[in-house]
Amino acid sequence: MNFKIVTIPGDGIGPEIVREAQKVLERVAKVYGHKFCFERVLMGGCSIDAYGEPLTDETIEICKSADAVLMGSIGGKVGQSSWYELPPEKRPEAGLLKLRKSLGLFCNLRPAHLYPELKKACPLRESIADQGFDVMMVRELTGGLYFGTRKTEVVDGVEVATDTLVYHDYEIRRIAEKAFEIASKRQCHVTSVDKANVLDSSRLWRKIVIEVGKAHPDIALDHALVDSTAMQLVRNPGQFDVVVTENMFGDILSDEMAEIAGSLGMLPSASLREDSFGLYEPSGGSAPDIAGLNVANPLATILSAAMLLRYSFNLSKEADAVEAAVAETLTAGLRTADIMEDGVSGLTRLSTSEMGDQVAARIR
Ligand code: IPM
Ligand code: MN
Question: Which residues of 181-203 are buried (b: 16+ CB within 10 A; e: fewer)?
């Protein structure tokens, strides 16, 4: 099969980790007889430097022409990088939000799974880590606080900043549908997370999710408040299967999930719309501290490439092969710095590019 993949390496460690994911995809194409053609574009800080804005219309058009987009990470250090002296709508993050909105990517999947080999990297008590977990976070991505109107003004001599949290019924319905669909292929259990004891938007959220749930009697549905969920995730993450929640809650809970899964460097993500098109990126940030040092963990990006094969290209055998290759490298004791355990025998520390080589070599 022939597919076009647009890559957005971005800033910081982005170019290094995308290079390794591309290496693995090229290996998949070779082993399985596909043709993937790659086109690289700029977004984020590098686009500000080149064109004066984080995301150009031309870049959006190129992304639209692709079958899927593979992204690294964007942004720099707030307070150090000159990108953050620009007005908010000109900063790197604004490019990412505009891209999600322009491409209609309302459904963000962030799977957090504890590899048995990484149990030691899990900060939870051993008795909890031993039980393992496999949670799929379904985060609404184009609504809520991120896209409501905002302003900062002076009212009667007082500075006032306002952000608005808006949800339309159809936005909740379509993400809930996705969550139930995904749960039907997993453990058939959806936990909808909200703050319905305080927020109107959450009360609407809960009402619509209950409605959608009625059409899926085979899926167990429960509701939890976001503060309690934050606690339950560290207490007993194994109780969750699919967690569906609004944009900001999902942003916060998914970082928490990445941490308990061992490292942000392990957590992939897919941002989808109704059709097969999607954007795939690691959940972690651009890590400017370690950029260019060839030490970043490329596995989250490689696992994002596996999601790309599965969700956008419908190549599940190939996706399984990438995930199996990642698991095998971990079993072989190969580790980047973030998941390295000192004093444990049988582990070898690898650079970013060596890790990419090792995964690519295990694609069969
Ligand atoms: C993420 C990131 C982004 C978000 C930032 C960079 C705008 O934290 O993908 O989780 O908040 O969505
Ligand atoms: Mn985030």
Answer: ebbeeeeeebbbbbbbeeeebbe
- What are 318's two structure tokens? 């190939």
| Ligand 2 mean position, distance from CA 156 (Å) | 35
Angle ∠(279,284,290) on CA atoms, nearest 5: 125
Of the residues 74, 96, 150, which should be mutated to test ligand 1's pocket, given the most ligand atoms within 8 Å of the CB? 96
Alpha-carbon torsion 294, 38, 32, 321, what sign?
Answer: positive
Q: Give residue ranges with CB within 6 A of ligand 1.
A: 75, 93, 96-97, 251
Q: How far is the CA of 219 from the centre of ligand 2 (A)?
A: 28
Q: What residue owns the CA closest to ligand 1's atom 9?
A: 283
Q: Is 57 exposed, middle or buried (0-12, 13-18, 19+ CB in 10 A)?
A: exposed
Strand pairing partners for 223?
192
Closest ligand 1 atom to the C-alpha of 92? 6
Centre of ligand 1 from the C-alpha of residue 167, in Å: 19
d(CA 108, CA 151): 27
Residue 108 CA: which ligand 1 atom is closest? 9
Question: pLDDT by residue for the chain (364 residues), tens digit each?
Answer: 899 999 999 999 999 999 999 999 999 999 999 999 999 999 999 999 999 999 999 999 999 999 999 999 999 999 999 999 999 999 999 999 999 999 999 999 999 999 999 998 899 999 999 999 999 999 999 999 999 999 999 999 999 999 999 999 999 999 999 999 999 999 999 999 999 999 999 999 999 999 999 999 999 999 999 999 999 999 999 999 999 999 999 999 999 999 999 888 899 999 999 999 999 999 889 999 999 999 999 999 999 999 999 999 999 999 999 999 999 999 999 999 999 988 889 999 999 999 999 999 999 9
